[in-house]
Amino acid sequence: xxxxxxxxxxxxxxxxxxxxxxxxxxxxxxxxxxxxxxxxxxxxxxxxxxxxxxxxxxxxxxxxxxxxxxxxxxxxxxxxxxxxxxxxxxxxxxxxxxxxxxxxxxxxxxxxxxxxxxxxxxxxxxxxxxxxxxxxxxxxxxxxxxxxxxxxxxxxxxxxxxxxxxxxxxxxxxxxxxxxxxx
Length: 183
What we know:
Blueprint: H1 6-10, E1 21-22, E2 33-34, H2 43-51, E3 54-66, E4 69-79, H3 82-94, E5 106-109, H4 113-126, H5 134-149, H6 151-162
Antiparallel strand pairs: 1-2, 3-4, 4-5
Helix pairs in contact: 3-4, 4-5
């Protein structure tokens, strides 16, 4: 007969279900499971989040150091505004990004290649609407978000362009998706 430790014979002998939640990380290799549930977002706060035209998710680990501390970078963007999605949908389709439903929102993650390809056209689109209109207000918010999102990249590209250089990492900014480049 197999040897059963005292601890092993009691394993699973109680009927209740124990629920565990993902806790703060202890290491990079595995999940830290804890019994205490995470704090819940109050209903009023949830409503504010759901009403936002654009949700911006930032992570630690930007490239710039501020007093020895890494900055934060925009890691994900979720456009919830049907006004914005309807307006930019044709522009994103031209760069190969299909939007299936305005109601589901549009979720994008780094490196935002297709959004970068449509950036200048989106800025031009803003000017087509009357100041103060709902469309202009929503698209202005998107423009400000994109300007912040691509500020570091634009700075790098301007510097590289002044030197008449490009890096392999940034090569995608020069050509639309699907173009074959020979060199």
